[in-house]
Amino acid sequence: MTAGDHALARALAEEAGRRLTGLRAQGGDPDVLRKAGDRLSHEFLTAELADRRPGDVVLSEEGADDPARLAARRVWIVDPLDGTREFGEPGRTDWAVHVALWEREALLAPGGTSPPEPAGDLTAGAVALPAQGRVLSTLEPPPPPEAGEAPARIRIVVSRSRAPQLVRNISDLIDAELVPLGSAGAKVAAVVSGEVDAYVHGGGFYEWDTAAPVAVARAAGFHASRIDGSPLAYNQADLLMPDILVCRPALAGVLLQAIRQIKETQNAS
Hints:
Layout: H1 3-25, H2 30-52, E1 57-60, E2 74-82, H3 84-87, E3 96-104, E4 120-129, E5 134-137, E6 155-159, H4 165-174, E7 177-181, H5 184-192, E8 198-201, E9 205-206, H6 207-219, E10 223-225, E11 240-241, E12 244-247, H7 249-268
Parallel strand pairs: 1-2, 6-7, 6-8
Antiparallel strand pairs: 2-3, 3-4, 4-5, 8-12, 9-11, 10-12
């Protein structure tokens, strides 16, 4: 990973967002607009990455999964239009473009031989929020979260259409306020900007939904993990991601404990 990768992720997310904004301004049938937006952004991002990083593999929500990524050293994970539903609704600003880079680490096993499956992680990323006129990226990470005690009432951002029962249970247990929002990128951006305190999701999604938002959140000093506290893993054979927690580090203990308590209660019943 180089400084150029950070800059490229940001530039591509921003330009894709600019093109989507132009398309959206033309109006038309919402479903047609959504499909056109997915296609426009996907074609732009994949063409630019093929030209600027020809040796890298691209994993896009709108493209076929290339099995070569499992052995690749560098994989770009992109969501050309995250929040497609919101993109088709006039006036909504909670949709995004995600561009992230995953890189393999050449770890050595005892004896100096490489293990069969070297580890890797996200190294660069950008989330463009075109309707909000901003881009969050690892090129210039947002300011780190302020240290301090938990707020009197924790605000948790949730899906507009499918807030999982887990999050409703957390709200009941610790009296959290639930804030509905669209795109996963917009949700994590709301956490990073301080509009809300945490994003918890337990309903399942895919790697492209969270790769760029997680890269940005980590670069800004936020906690990002599975809801059991284990690390988030990307460029996996199975692209389905079961759950996620993104929050200020000071709140991670409170939320992880609440999740554990809810799971224990469910298992006991």
